[in-house]
Amino acid sequence: MTTTPVGPATPTSYVPSRRTVLRAAAWTAPAVSVAVAVPAYAAASGPVACADASYEIRWASHYNAQTRTATARLVSAAGQGTMGNAPLTMFVSSRFVGDMAAGSTGGYANLALSPGNVGGTGRRGLTIMQRATVEEFSTPRNAHRQEITLTFNRPVRDLRFQLSDIDANEEESRWERYREGREWKWREIKRGQYQDRVSLSGGPAGTKAGMVAGSGTSVDPWRSTSTDVEHDPVSGSSGNVTVSYAGKPASMAYVLTYWNDQPGELTANGLQGIFLTDLTFTASSCA
């Protein structure tokens, strides 16, 4: 007797049902291809450094007295790296404290370009000029002052410039008779126009000309060695100080403080003036 096995026939081909396809698709994670942009410098060993550069500001060429701004000129590279060309600008601002106000005379005006060269440099400079609004300053006299701030749009270092025409104008005292009890006495009333006093923030070094004393701080300001000496604002260099911030931290702001230390009665409204010469400094050439 022959036995024949009974079972399902084997199909020659297999077509999955729609339900099977959908079930498989629901449990299969899709493969996604993502394109990522890679910076050009990533292929190099590291980011490209921006080079430092030497800059200058010449008041006669680069300063706009109306807006009180200046755009520095890039002089040369001052370090390794790629040179940038981001503009470097400076803004000059002023604040008066106490009984002090902006001054002007004979073509000179506060925060304006000098009409002629200054301090024997052969170049024009920024005029810093002020006057008293009272007949006599109360003490301390440095409570009546002007604060001038040079603000850059990025940090600068090794800032260098000159201050010129630091001098003084004291006049002959007058004598006043007064009564003390039953006795009449005389007292001396000091008189004068100005005694320049100048200090700078940040503790820079200062190379002084022969008729300048002090260290440029608020307690030991730059001043004339005489109480009555006037320098020619154009050609005189005996009242100059060469200022250098070499080795000091970079900064975006530098403050100059200017006051009149003349005691007693003020003549000619206490009008006084000094000058700031061209600036040189180092900064990044990129913004």
From TrEMBL:
Biased amino acid composition, Polar residues: 215-227
Signal peptide: 1-42
Keywords on record: Signal
Region of interest (Disordered), ranges: 197-240
Superkingdom per UniProt: Bacteria
InterPro entries assigned: TAT_signal (IPR006311)
Name of the protein in its database record: Tat pathway signal sequence domain protein
Organism: Nocardioides pinisoli
